[in-house]
Write a structure and sequence with these properties.
The structure is a single chain. The chain is mostly beta strands. It is built from 5 helices and 32 strands. The strands form 8 sheets. It has a 6-stranded mixed sheet, sandwiched between helices. Strands 1-2-32-29-30 form a 5-stranded mixed sheet, with no helix packed on it. It has a 5-stranded mixed sheet with strand order 3-5-8-9-12, with no helix packed on it.
Amino acid sequence: MWKHVSRVLPLLCLIALPLSWATAERINHEGRILGDPAPPLVAPILFNTPEADAILSTMQIMPRDNAWNERVDTRPLLSNSATMITQINADLASGRRNLRMFAEMNFALIPDNQPTQPIAFLLYANQSDLDGGTSPNGLYPIPSILPIESWPVDTGTLTLDQWQQDSTNLGGDRHAIMVKPGAGVAWETWQAKRVGTAWHASNGAKFDLNSNALRPAGWTSGDAGGLSMFAALVRFDECARGMVEHAVRIVVQRSRQSYIYPATHQAGSTTLPDVPAMGQRLRLRASFVIPASWSTYEKAIARALQKYGAIVADNGNFFSISYAPDQRFPSNAFSNIQTLLVTDFEVVQTTDATSGPRSPGAPSANAGPDRAVTFGQAASLSAAYTSPTGTPTLRWRLYGGPGTVTFADATSAITSATFSAPGRYTLMFSADDGVHSPAYDAVVVNVAPGTNLQQSGSDIIVRFASSLGQAYRVERSDDVALTLWTIVGDNLPGTGAFVPVTDPGAAAIPRRFYRVTVLP
């Protein structure tokens, strides 16, 4: 079905068409289009590879309204926020009162059919997910390439095999994480070690990445707070995109003997109310201006600290957050962000399992069907939304395309848009009630090139408007049913102006049809 006929002339017809049409998009809580689900894994892959990046970029890690994905930039402060920050600061040695980036947790992505093997839990078998095993042994899908915490950037010349065995008896936390993207499951361990062909660890936790379900009350995990480390980990792929899209795990010197949502376990040493509990949420002050000179990676983390915050997950000797020990991070990737002080943070009031974004009444949004217009015409936009809990803030924005977009009213569901150049545009519509995760939907507008036909002797010259960076194809057909097409010009680069394509001898043909296609 032809979507748009741009011009009809005597003896000649020209049809300008988009190459393809989008279906419903998968959009995450940050408003990023996830694209098609990644193809199934056929073998385990490591966290520090482009293959892993491609898979991770398609994943919604934890539900959109999960605590790790919850916006806190507008949450009210805890009444004792200032005194709690003062206490966190005072608990640290004077030289450790700044944020520290620790290269810690890594992981392997594994296929759904990854074979399982026994793993013995030596300390907390009664608080471990055995996943089909018999206490004290779990039955986990451990790949041969399972990385252990801090490999490969902080393990010197040791091979992965040697590090799995702790051949130098270094000890430490030795966290290990296995993730099945297809099934949406993560297994996380603490003090993991391979002895011969057998594995043991101090405990094991299984997390459903598609659920808000917590571990049983009182249960620990690889983190003292009973939280998922994978959901909190700062990864290379998201830093490179410019935004860490979730809260991060943060470690304080001392914690209170209690836990609050979403934590399930405490490891505190005091009952003082101004000492943070496991699950306490901090954020970087909105008044902190992120310097333009900071690296892309630092900006990505700082934006997350302001928008999603940090959740207290463990005790340690530094005020620190964890990032994947990915060798692709430059050696000075975090030199600036580590100048942040404890006093640059504040403590917000937390929500629980049924409040905040998990409360009833989340909005919905529908941006309407995809459409096509000719360059120079306005595209009519008509979105629909629901908002059971109040009047939401509506917004249209350009998500991607070869040019700029001007909306008649970007805050109205029904509006129009004009485009600075032909090509394929993705427009994002959102409805945000300020409580729940914003509702998003996208619409694709194919802006067909403006065209004209000219006769030059026995030739026909097809001219069409183009965009820089876009490629085009011109085709002809002598078939009135428009079923047979011949390429006149292919993979033609856009110039930002009209591109001429000559069809020799075409003027002698009684009737001929042309179309211009925007290539992906």
